[in-house]
Amino acid sequence: MADRYTFPCNPATNPKAIVTGGKGGHYRFCVLTNRLIRFEWSEDGGFEDRVSTFALFRWFDVPNYQVIDTNDSLQIITEYFHLTYDKKPFSSEGLSVKVANDVWRYDGKSYGDLGGTARTLDGAYGRVELEPGVLSRKAYAVLDDSKSMLFDERGWIATRLPGRIDGYLFAYNGDHKAAIKDFYRISGNQPILPRFTLGNWWSRYHEYTASEYLELMDHFKREGIPLNVAVIDMDWHKVNIPPKYGSGWTGYSWNRDLFPDPEGFLKELHRRNLKATLNDHPADGIRAFEDLYKEVAKALNHDTSNEAPILFDCTDRKFMDAYFDVLKASLEKQGVDFWWIDWQQGNQSKIPGVDPLWVLNHYHYLTSQRNLATLQRPLTFSRYAGAGSHRYPIGFSGDTQITWEGLDFQPEFTATASNIGYGWWSHDIGGHWGGVRSNQLTVRWVQLGCFSPILRLHSTKNLWNSKEPWNFEKDAHTIIKDFLILRHRLIPFLYTMNIRASYENEPLIQPVYWNHKDAEAYTVPTQYYFGPDLIVAPITSPDSSTTLMGGVRAWLPPGRFVDLFQPHLVYDGNRYVHLHRDLTQIPVLGKEGTIIPLDSKPRLENGAPRPTEITILLVVGADGQFELVEEPEKPDPSPQPPLSSFVRTPITWNQKDGILVIGPEWNGSGKWRQWNVKLVGHTNSDIQARVPGFRVTQEDGCTTIALGNVHRWNPDGFEIALGSDLQLDVVDIRTRLFDMLHRCEMWYDSKDPVWNLVTNSADPIETRVKQLQSLNVDAALKNAVMEIWAADGRASGNATGHEIWANVQGNGVEGVEEALRDYVIV
Question: Is this model's pTM higher than 0.90 or not?
Fold first, then answer.
């Protein structure tokens, strides 16, 4: 099958960018950009120009560089780095590169101290060691590509000759986005995901029957919770097999006791607008009990007389062809849309240097092109195999334990993955196994999942462990349901971010330091950007028993922000804050000028069709723009269709004049679509426009304007005047403080000193802030008070610039009365 062995690449280097020791020389340097250099050394004098798992494209425009070459030394100089080499086998004494004030000396290792990601979170209780990415606090990072697998000119796997060194030095000195963009230039872009992947996935390791599974899907529908992907874990196939065949971990034959009519079952899933993926542990190959054993054996001329197993061998092209074109093609014809590759057997194969996971990911992704009629885009679902794995989304991060520690690590793990270009992790939302049943922990995990690359509920085989929202207590049930619905409402935004990730090399989730050089940006690992304007700070610890809220320490960059879930709170930036939210909310902050489109159909559907009604979340206070991107009207199967072929609707906000313009829509069908505008954190608009169906409502700190149907082919776009120079509402400290204190579960008499200190005392603010810290009340309460008191510098009596944050330990109990490293007093 040509598609399985053909992929875009251009691995050679422009000869004008190459510096070598001449014929028979042992070193080669390729100056790819003025900040990126490839360094190679080989005993045999040969160098590698084939595609590696990391490097697909090495032909760059030649940058300006200078070479100083003498008998015993070589220097390569660009605007950003200065390489010095003694022309001997690479060593720390002989090869160095100076970048700004840092000097790298060769040591044969990858280096990127901001972290990358890891192959799996299997069994993780909390933190795991991360492989390095290509970003660093130093002025350089290094990616050692010496041991990676190769592909030959026919697209089949190949290996390196021993004794050769092959590495890349990224000399970007804190310009993280530029480093990642050049990483993608070498390794290839993130592919476009099908729209359906951005909604909710259901997964559970459980022995479902077909009828039980379909009833579960219908229960979600009755609840009004949309789903897009139905994951069927390993019990879809025969598991209880005769001992002579080994374990039942690997299997390709339907368990007819559970699924008597597989085709009918899959057809019913499709009728419900669900895509189906099956779990596959391929390690044990194809054994004699399998339905397709003889058919696969025939394709391989394998002797079946003694029921010898057909061993899994990723290095045998004939086996891989039979694996895909006989075994899996048969199941795909029954209705399987894509595969969950659950390889857990290490990185060794018959050929040294060939990792089976790489082979499986690469060829599964390319083979999935044959299913584009249902998939829309190539797709696989598997574990991370190393640098370059971003080309095979979606990633399965493995089996985490159900602990607060496990939840606390996932935001950081997800964000740092972008440091190696890996933008589409799918976690076991809610945790996989072990741990404890906790409504609170599950809710917080689902909230993180809503603002993660992929939201896939999952749990292990356990009578007590499952993630159906209705199996939790009433409040938790409602909250989980609300966030699953919100996830589907976010799909218009997420699909646009999907296109941005592929075409602009901007992953959906980015560490804060990608966008801010401030030292503080490196101190909030669980906080991240979700798209270009939203900052998410998930709550990953239990709620305080006093405030009934969870807390998280965050750093806000310069500017003014409003919380989308708590629009009564507006924050001045350029400082640390402690954010507190009850179980219904997660801190998601939008800077002034933020525009977010949501699907606002009253009842959402499985499959995430394009919305016929959209609500624009608008944060006033600064100019804003957003271009809504949707699939081309005519499907284009090419890996990356021209960006101009997508349906695009620009949305612009002019702060000074108060004009919002929607459209015109480009490349669309020109149909009518209903639009609404929600001003988050603003309730004082003097709406000037009048259109058919126009109405204004105000609630929960927001103003919503229903515009009615707007024709998408309006050549000038649809314009509405909302009022000039609108601003976010000023925080009402007394009201917010009263509401918070009223809910606190504490001695009534202890509330009065807090209230009086903030609202009635005549002492200077600085003095009162210190007095707050000396009160004998819960540290979590002090921080919750401080958050409100110091949030908005425009508010009367505010403490902005004088804040002190208490040290909170454990479940909100009183900690040591010393400030954290973000202690601020002015």
Answer: yes
